[in-house]
Amino acid sequence: MKSTIITIGDEILIGQILDTNSRYLSQQLNAAGIVVFERTSIGDSAESITETLDRALSQSDIVILTGGLGPTKDDITKHTLARYFHSDMRYDEREAEHICAMLARRGIAFNELNRSQAMVPERCTVLHNAHGTAPGMWFEQEGKVVVSLPGVPFEMVHLMEDEVMPRLKKRFELRQIVHRTLITSGIAESILAERIAEWEDALPEEMHLAYLPAPNIVRLRLSAYEVDGASESRRIEHEFAKLYNIIPDHIVGYEDATVEQLLHALLIERGERLSVAESCTGGRIASLFTAQAGASAYFMCGAVTYSNDSKCRVLGVSEDDIRAFGAVSEQVACQMAEGVRRISGADYGISTTGIAGPSGGSPEKPVGTVWIGISTPQRTFAVRRDCGTDRSQIVSRASAYAISMLYNEIR
Amino acid sequence: MKSTIITIGDEILIGQILDTNSRYLSQQLNAAGIVVFERTSIGDSAESITETLDRALSQSDIVILTGGLGPTKDDITKHTLARYFHSDMRYDEREAEHICAMLARRGIAFNELNRSQAMVPERCTVLHNAHGTAPGMWFEQEGKVVVSLPGVPFEMVHLMEDEVMPRLKKRFELRQIVHRTLITSGIAESILAERIAEWEDALPEEMHLAYLPAPNIVRLRLSAYEVDGASESRRIEHEFAKLYNIIPDHIVGYEDATVEQLLHALLIERGERLSVAESCTGGRIASLFTAQAGASAYFMCGAVTYSNDSKCRVLGVSEDDIRAFGAVSEQVACQMAEGVRRISGADYGISTTGIAGPSGGSPEKPVGTVWIGISTPQRTFAVRRDCGTDRSQIVSRASAYAISMLYNEIR
Predict the structure, then answer these.
(1) Exposed/middle/buried for A126, CB within 10 Å: 0-12, 13-18, 19+?
(2) How far apart (Å, rounded) are the C-alpha atoms in residues A305 and B299?
(3) Do A153 and A134 touch, CB atoms closer than 8 A?
């Protein structure tokens, strides 16, 4: 079963917003065994919508559109679809009542524009949007399905889960798509490819191998489309077992786990606790851990000590050492990691202190210089890393390095 | 001048990665006056690449592709393009040396796969990738340009800035695209549309108005394509001035500023300082501020006090109050905001304490309940907000509410 995803909105094409809907939809469709053949983003233009829909229906059985369902004049998806499917519009009492109630909760009166939101094409099945004022629509034509959803991510997600996926599973007989990922570390992509070439060449025909490199790790993904999920998973596990014998020391995890997820699981398993003292990463490391459900089992406290003063006051870093060695130094990184471990009573402390730029660099310590400190019950140490030149990249890389460093230290 | 963006990779279509390249490319092309007509994501399939390229060249003057240039077998973009442009391959000595040097720095030997990365189509201009091992390619045919770039975001960005944009500006005579955005707050989208309907109807024909709603704000964007940038900007400013007279109290900013950017500017202007104490937002608020260059002028310290113990130890929250009212309470939110302000010596303190889920909720305090505390030299108070049901959404919403609350309090 093939599908096409179409996201609509000038704000996407000019780069004003990041299109996260396409990714979510891809994940949902894949998980249900529906192959995403293509994703396209187009502007709020009736001609573009019509042409793209024509093409999508020629290549796919299922088409999901998002966006262009708001109450204002730039939102034209609904009327374009009504014309596409030669359908008149009707006033939907139930949707009108729901819109009226939603607005009332926010103290807003129902007006002409909201009334237009309750107008729906006669030929569609209305998908009730419990979390917003724009209903979704489900059209069928010649055995194919076209679904139109609002572009607001939160509303779209609920409509997919509550209305669209259950209907698709009922409407079509779906096979399964299996993706399994193995995570390697400490081996370059080209060397890895050489080492596993023989294994790769002997893979069963239905399995597709992909290499996904990231800082310090390369993921290997095996995918098989429209198969029997359970037996295919077993076949892939069998292949992974063979691979294990070729590169046993380089396999650090499975599936899409990030290093913070691996560390999260490791700390919970060991019943140990972590605190973090951040300067240049500004709270990123804390938020990576605390984004994970269950982090409160081990995450004690994070200190974002941006100013020198707060490094001394909160973490007990020596003022003399800051004067002598600078805030971006091995000494300060060590004292920060040790300090946060001490004040919080955690088993492990991580620290970062660096120059995120764009200003503040010097010849000895250019922008991108970061000292990362690790403190454990056994020892405290710090390592200097060059994390690039761009502020957001420096924050990301320094965070990734710091988390991997502690992971490798514990493991 | 029209363009199409094509991103290639099965990992995009299955939703394994978020396609951020398309957004970046959209922004760059737009800023140079090149209209992005369509964006498409396809899999690593020669047939898909060829068909999509055919279509893109029929509708656009410039086509930018990313992805599929790695050294492994799943990367087929280069050979597909060579066939598309009927070109033989040649070995590029300069690229080979560069790849060899890059690998040497990481202690990796140059192998057969790396050798294949130095092979390039004869018909293309090689775009040197200073930050990676896969060179970019520039093809021309019948007055149109096709550019192929690696999918690694960092490498792609440098190639665009250093190689592609300068060449496009030299190659084509480009007009300008103007987008100007005005930010409104405290007025619902449908009410806003009603209030400004007359103004909207009287807009000059070349200006397109878009409504972009987000929590607590609605952005209004006026766009004009392929115009004289300076005179069009003045015309838009003239329209914004008229709009100001219609909704003077609801205009809070211009362009794509987020509330944290508005607050960043406000604090720097006033020479005042901020500290943050976070529980359920886990460092997100600190990282939103510190992501901005220059934040060290006002950002003193962030405390991610996830455990009750650290709330008491680090911030001086009363243990008795945690027992009596719970960690998620008005009292604790106030003491956290006040505490972080006191220990850091800042002018303002923000705090969050809530239930991010999925577990930990109760009938009185369901998942999503967040108390947000604000402490200023004048007063300390806290407000309870319902931030939804999904963990990541709760963190985002609570952070957005907290930052807006302080912004409105100061303003």
Answers:
(1) middle
(2) 9
(3) no
Distances from the Cα of B199 to the Cαs of A209, A306, B204, in angstroms?
56, 46, 10
Residue with tokens 């107008």: A119
Beta bridge partners of B136: B127
Indicate where chain B has its CATH 3.90.950.20 domain(s).
259-410
- Residue A215 is predicted with a pLDDT of 64
Q: Which of B4, B41, B51, B196 to mutate to test the interface with A (most CBs of A within 10 A)?
A: B41
Cβ distance B106 to A309 less than 8 Å, yes or no, reads no
> What class is the A2-171 domain?
alpha beta
- Per-residue model confidence as pLDDT tens for chain B (411 residues): 999 999 999 999 999 889 999 999 999 999 999 999 999 999 999 999 999 999 999 999 999 999 999 888 888 999 999 999 999 999 999 999 999 988 887 677 888 888 899 999 999 999 999 888 899 999 999 999 999 999 988 889 999 999 999 999 999 999 899 999 999 887 888 899 999 999 999 999 999 998 888 766 789 999 998 888 889 999 999 999 999 899 987 887 888 788 899 899 999 999 999 999 999 999 999 999 999 999 999 999 999 998 999 999 999 999 999 999 999 999 999 999 999 999 999 999 999 999 988 888 898 898 889 999 999 999 999 999 888 777 887 898 899 889 988 988 887
Give B-chain residues touching A189 at CB under 8 angstroms.
Answer: 70-72
- Rounded to whole angstroms, what are the CA distances from B270 to B77, B118, B265, B274, B345? 53, 55, 9, 12, 16
CA distance B146 to B135: 14
Of B112, B212, B304, the CB nearest to A301: B304
Kindly report the pTM of this predicted structure.
0.75
Superfamily of the domain at B259-410: CinA-like (3.90.950.20)
ipTM beyond cut 0.95: no
Cβ-contact A318, A312 below 8 angstroms: yes
pLDDT digits (tens, 9 = 90+) for B152-191: 888 899 999 999 999 999 999 998 999 999 998 878 888 9
CA A29, CA A174: separation in Å to the nearest integer? 10
Mutate to test the interface with B, among A254, A287, A352, A391 (most CBs of B within 10 A): A287
Quote the pLDDT of residue A106. Answer: 67
| Residue range(s) in chain B whose domain bears CATH number 3.30.70.2860 | 176-254
* Fold classified for A177-254: Alpha-Beta Plaits (3.30.70)
Cβ-based neighbours of A166, under 8 Å, separated by 6 or more: none
Pairing of strands A274-278, A299-305: parallel
pLDDT in the model for residue B90:
97
The bridge status of strand B62-66 relative to strand B2-8 is: parallel
Q: Where in chain A is the domain with CATH 3.40.980.10?
A: 2-171
Please tell us whether the domain made up of B176-254 is placed in CATH 3.30.70.2860.
yes
Task: Please name which of B71, B126, B133, B129 lies closest in space to residue B102, comparing C-alpha atoms.
Answer: B133
Residues in chain B with CB shorter than 8 Å from the CB of A284 are: 283, 287
DSSP E strand boundaries for A166-214: 176-185, 208-214
Q: Which amino acid is at A371?
A: W
Give the separation between CA A205 and CA A214, rounded to whole angstroms.
27
How many whole angstroms from its chain centre is CA A33?
20
